[in-house]
Specification:
alpha+beta; 7-stranded antiparallel beta sheet; 24% helix; two-stranded antiparallel sheet; single chain
């Protein structure tokens, strides 16, 4: 079951619906948020302060859901969901992963490990050291290519990611698919 199918959600309570169901995108990303009990708890709480929705650029729509922390502006662990229209700079999953790697390495020493790959997606982990304050030294990413859109699920962690949380996040990511 995808996270969109939970009947108690309303657009005002969870603006990510706009991200995945936008007519401009014509594709939607679905994933099972229940695989991460902390994410499920945040979404079930209905606390709008834990979610930041940014559609200022319709070609790059971003949702941030704070899973640990005080708010979407002050978080320790967060899920970021991005829907992006391919362009000349980033036209594929490989291009997007390359961009993520360049951006991280420009901030601090970063190591990337590919965890899974198929014809439409790549899942990887980033571990960084010597990062500027506020830049998460740990991240998990899954970039997925649709017919007309690119999607990214990113888990960003400012302290450390325990093995249980890591396993749960990877389950969330592996459940993601485009409809």
């Amino acid at each position: 079951m995808g996270w969109m199918t939970k009947p108690k959600w309303h657009l005002a309570a969870f603006p990510a619906f706009l991200l995945v169901a936008s007519p401009a995108l014509a594709e939607k990303l679905t994933f099972d948020y229940r695989q991460s009990p902390p994410l499920k708890a945040v979404l079930d709480s209905g606390d709008a302060g834990m979610i930041d929705y940014n559609a200022a650029n319709p070609r790059n729509i971003v949702d941030l859901i704070a899973v640990r922390g005080k708010s979407a502006k002050d978080w320790t662990e967060a899920l970021v969901i991005i829907a992006r229209t391919p362009d000349r700079k980033v036209g594929s999953v490989n291009d997007w992963i390359g961009e993520l790697q360049r951006e991280a390495k420009a901030k601090c020493a970063s190591t990337f490990s590919v965890l899974a790959r198929d014809e439409n997606s790549i899942t990887l982990e980033r571990r960084s050291v010597g990062c500027p304050k506020g830049y998460p030294p740990v991240a998990l990413y899954r970039a997925i290519s649709g017919k007309r859109s690119l999607f990214l699920l990113a888990v960003l962690v400012k302290d450390d990611l325990g093995e249980t949380a890591r396993r749960q996040w990877l389950a969330v990511m592996s459940s993601a698919h485009i409809e």
